[in-house]
């Protein structure tokens, strides 16, 4: 029997999350959100347990995880940087901002710096188009960001 | 009363019940709109209409965009054009875009000539390709039964519907997004590591060469040409009821004699029948059933009931993956294919005066899971498989064509003996309900000591997904359940697990219809009337047999007298029974 290892406390936590959504298969996306909030990312083991608890196939869970760019199978950084690539942000120069983050941190999109501090991801519209281009780091939102601001923003988290 | 809707399709007035799709309404007046991703499996109640491929688009007057006819419902007063220039151009463009990312190896593709993508492109008159773009480069996934070449996938997702909705296996899902999206197992692992049961229903509905069976015909041609090898063949019951379709014969035409003749001409040293092994299966499985039943009646609390049949390798894979906690409930009797192998290599080889390693046992099966079953370690002796490999009905048809034979014109010939003699009970193994009917014929006589006057258990026959019947064993009511299609099997299994099952014995077949609808059969394109005709053919062959009860097969009687001893005896246990494995993936808690 192929076994997957995961700490009991983590399994218990996952079971509890699934239960809080009545183990409903249709609540998969909500469960994944909560699980990613708890673990920081969604490794294969976590998806296996969610599939079992919600009585859906692992292939289905993996399908949903890989469909939405918000979900990640690699651990995010302590400070997850998200650059909005929605239409408004894009036309106002989000790509240049993204390139600057990638250059300064030396990591591609979807990955985490070696020290585990920063990860970069792109997202589509946070609903603050008036502030375009928008960058979020954790819960914090930065508006009207230009490539020139990137160094200062990173510095805030390097203390 | 059903509300009726009036509309116009291609200048013709049409009246259809509310809820009818444009595709269905058009079909009603003889307008056959081309489709690609659409799939309608009549009696199974499965209609797959994601509207994803956009081949079936039509123009609805007053609407800005063309509408996919497969999932657009008719509305009062609609005026629809199914073949104006806008529609034809759109379909062609859609097809060209699909082909822009498709490998051009049609000349050597396994699906060529039987490919919906190819025939639809032909039908749409695509003669030029205007688009060239990025190409998918997925790794080809070779499993023992099924080959996945996802560069050829057009994301119709029919396979996903079969795997999830019909079979409830859940091995396949659409993963990733946009150009990267593909149908794959969880974590894009190989099929062999997934929960796939190799039932092959995905292969049976794939419209392209993305999913095909592992082909063993070249190996077979090599073995037949090797003078040092004695090559013997066994043919499963369901093959004879479908092989003719590949040669333009009516579904349900029995080609038993012509198939034997073709196999002999291909150069097999002996042409035998899996039906013989099916009779042998009944001896072993029937004995086990009666033993468990008697112990149960005697009050033995440890005895496991219901007993489940174990002939179907797709089904065996299913419970090993999905219900491993129940792996001691199915009969330990091997499938007929795997009973034939050891009898051929341990008994027949001796009779023929040849060494085991010089004998090649080939099976012709309606099934793709049989290919995997041949390779299971427990069915090998020092690495030599009891059955070397299995080829599907479709592969056999191709081989007969390669050998310049027209099945229709071949003479009828008889199987060789001793492993070619079979009863009507062995023949009906190929249809859902057949195995348990065959078991009932023998178990009744053994249990009651009386002669069974009417061997036709009509109550066990039919095409309903889950059936049940009570058979009177001279005062003892034996409750029998039947399921075909793994989704239906799952329901019966959940009842057993929850302690709600009242059955003494259950027959399960992985494929809808049983083996006649197997993943290796000529494609039936969801037409269940074809399955019914194939089943009727098997019952016809049964009716025509002089002997219709497995335990009366003279060669089976002789085999026990000369070689095996008694059913479920020591040698039987070694050669004809097996054990099952827990293949579930579970999380280990630290």
From TrEMBL, chain A:
Gene Ontology MF annotations: 2 iron, 2 sulfur cluster binding; metal ion binding; oxidoreductase activity
Keywords for this protein: 2Fe-2S, Iron, Iron-sulfur, Metal-binding
Signal peptide: none
Pfam family, one: 2Fe-2S_thioredx
CDD domains referenced in this protein's UniProt entry, alphabetically: TRX_Fd_NuoE
Residue intervals passing through the bilayer: none
Gene3D superfamilies: Glutaredoxin, NADH-quinone oxidoreductase subunit E
Binding site for [2Fe-2S] cluster: 84, 89, 125, 129
Cofactor note: Binds 1 [2Fe-2S] cluster.
Cofactor field: [2Fe-2S] cluster
Similarity comment: family membership: Belongs to the complex I 24 kDa subunit family.
Official protein name in the record: NAD(P)H-dependent oxidoreductase subunit E
The organism of origin for this protein: Labilibaculum manganireducens
TrEMBL record, chain B:
2Fe-2S ferredoxin-type domain sequence ranges: 3-86
Record GO terms (molecular function): 2 iron, 2 sulfur cluster binding; 4 iron, 4 sulfur cluster binding; ferredoxin hydrogenase activity; iron ion binding
One Pfam family per UniProt: Fer4_Nqo3
Entries under SMART domains matching the protein: Fe_hyd_SSU, NADH-G_4Fe-4S_3
Protein name: NADH:ubiquinone oxidoreductase
Entry keyword annotation includes Oxidoreductase: yes
Family matches, as InterPro entries: 2Fe-2S_ferredoxin-like_sf, 2Fe-2S_ferredoxin-type, 4Fe4S_Fe-S-bd, 4Fe4S_Fe_S_CS, Cytosolic_Fe-S_CAF, Fe_hydrogenase, Fe_hydrogenase_lsu_C, Fe_hydrogenase_ssu
CDD domains: fer2 (cd00207)
Record keyword Repeat present: yes
Segments forming domain 4Fe-4S His(Cys)3-ligated-type: 86-125
Domain 4Fe-4S ferredoxin-type: start-end pairs: 144-163, 185-216
Alphabetical keyword list: 2Fe-2S, 4Fe-4S, Iron, Iron-sulfur, Metal-binding, Oxidoreductase, Repeat, Ubiquinone
């Amino acid at each position: 029997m192929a076994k997957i290892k995961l700490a009991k406390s983590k399994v218990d936590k996952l079971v509890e999350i699934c239960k809080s959504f009545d183990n409903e298969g249709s609540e998969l996306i909500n469960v994944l959100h909560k699980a990613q909030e708890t673990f920081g990312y969604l490794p294969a083991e976590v998806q296996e347990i969610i599939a079992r608890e919600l009585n859906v196939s692992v292939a289905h869970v993996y399908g949903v995880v890989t469909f939405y760019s918000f979900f990640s199978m690699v651990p995010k950084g302590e400070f997850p940087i998200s650059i909005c690539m929605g239409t408004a942000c894009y036309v106002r120069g989000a790509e240049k901002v993204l390139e600057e983050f990638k250059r300064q941190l030396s990591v591609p999109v979807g990955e985490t710096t070696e020290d585990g501090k920063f990860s970069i991801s792109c997202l589509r519209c946070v609903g603050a188009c008036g502030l375009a281009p928008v960058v979020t780091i954790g819960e914090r939102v930065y508006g009207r960001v230009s490539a020139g601001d990137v160094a200062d923003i990173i510095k805030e988290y390097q203390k | 009363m059903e509300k009726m809707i009036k509309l116009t399709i291609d200048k013709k007035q049409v009246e259809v019940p509310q809820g009818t799709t444009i595709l269905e309404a058009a079909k009603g007046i003889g307008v056959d709109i081309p489709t690609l991703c659409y799939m309608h499996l009549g009696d199974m109640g499965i209609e797959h209409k994601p509207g994803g491929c956009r081949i079936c688009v039509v123009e609805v007057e007053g609407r800005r965009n063309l509408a996919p006819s497969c999932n657009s419902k008719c509305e009062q007063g609609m005026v629809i054009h199914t073949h104006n220039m806008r529609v034809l151009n759109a379909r062609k463009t859609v097809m060209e875009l699909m082909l822009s990312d498709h490998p051009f190896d049609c000349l050597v593709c396994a699906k060529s000539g039987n490919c919906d993508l190819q025939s639809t492109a032909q039908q749409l008159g695509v003669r030029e390709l205007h688009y060239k773009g990025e190409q998918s480069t997925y790794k080809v996934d070779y499993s023992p039964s099924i080959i996945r070449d996802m560069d050829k996938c057009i994301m119709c997702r029919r396979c996903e519907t079969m795997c999830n909705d019909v079979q409830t296996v859940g091995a396949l899902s659409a993963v990733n997004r946009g150009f990267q999206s593909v149908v794959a197992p969880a974590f894009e692992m190989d099929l062999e590591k997934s929960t796939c049961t190799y039932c092959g229903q995905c292969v049976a509905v794939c419209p392209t060469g993305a999913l095909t069976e592992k082909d063993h015909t070249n190996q077979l041609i090599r073995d037949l040409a090797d003078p040092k090898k004695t090559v013997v063949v066994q043919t499963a019951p369901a093959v004879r009821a479908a092989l003719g379709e590949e040669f333009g014969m009516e579904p349900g035409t029995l080609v038993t004699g012509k198939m034997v003749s073709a196999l002999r001409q291909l150069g097999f040293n002996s042409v035998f029948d899996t039906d013989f092994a099916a009779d042998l299966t009944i001896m072993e499985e029937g004995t086990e059933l009666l033993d468990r039943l008697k112990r149960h009646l005697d009050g033995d609390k440890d005895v496991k009931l219901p007993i489940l049949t174990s002939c179907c390798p797709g089904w065996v894979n299913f419970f090993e993956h999905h219900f491993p906690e129940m792996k001691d409930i199915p009969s330990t009797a091997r499938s007929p294919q795997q009973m034939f192998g050891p009898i051929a290599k341990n008994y027949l080889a001796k009779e023929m005066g040849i060494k085991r390693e010089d004998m090649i046992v080939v099976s012709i099966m309606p099934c793709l899971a049989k290919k995997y079953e041949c390779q299971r370690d427990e069915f090998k002796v020092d690495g030599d498989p009891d059955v070397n490999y299995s080829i599907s009905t479709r592969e056999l048809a191709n081989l007969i064509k390669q050998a310049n034979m027209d099945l229709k014109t071949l003479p009828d010939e008889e199987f060789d003996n001793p492993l070619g003699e079979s009863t009507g009970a062995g023949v009906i193994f190929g249809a859902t309900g057949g195995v348990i009917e065959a078991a009932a014929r023998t178990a009744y006589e053994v249990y009651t000591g009386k002669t069974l006057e009417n061997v036709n258990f009509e109550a066990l026959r039919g095409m309903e997904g889950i059936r049940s019947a009570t058979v009177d064993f001279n005062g003892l009511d034996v409750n029998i359940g039947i399921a075909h299609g793994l989704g239906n099997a799952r329901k019966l299994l959940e009842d057993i697990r929850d302690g709600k099952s009242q059955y003494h014995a259950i027959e399960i077949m992985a494929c809808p219809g049983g083996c006649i609808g197997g993943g290796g059969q000529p494609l039936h394109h969801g037409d269940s009337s074809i399955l019914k005709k194939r089943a009727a053919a098997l019952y016809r062959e049964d009716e025509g047999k002089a002997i219709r009860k497995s335990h009366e097969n003279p060669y089976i009687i002789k085999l026990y007298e000369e070689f095996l001893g008694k059913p479920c005896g020591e040698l039987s246990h070694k050669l004809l029974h097996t054990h099952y494995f827990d293949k579930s993936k579970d999380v280990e808690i630290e």
